[in-house]
Fold DUF2007 domain-containing protein.
Amino acid sequence: MEVIVASTDTIRLSFLMALLRDAGLAPVLLDQNIAAVEGNIGMFPRRIAVSAADAERARRVLREAGEE
């Protein structure tokens, strides 16, 4: 797995996950459970990862959408 995005913005992360899924990729949201520890204050970034084989394609999808 390769991390392609890290952000504390949950709305943006949700949008990027949908964008990647629509492109036929299988993104994974990492650090999602940290919200329970931090009390949802948005201090720790969540990360989106894809397989190493799909990383370049995922970056291209994000770049074409103006999101990288």
Remarks:
- Strands lie at 2-7, 28-30, 46-50.
- Helices lie at 10-22, 34-38, 55-64.
- The CA atoms of residues 29 and 48 lie 5 Å apart.
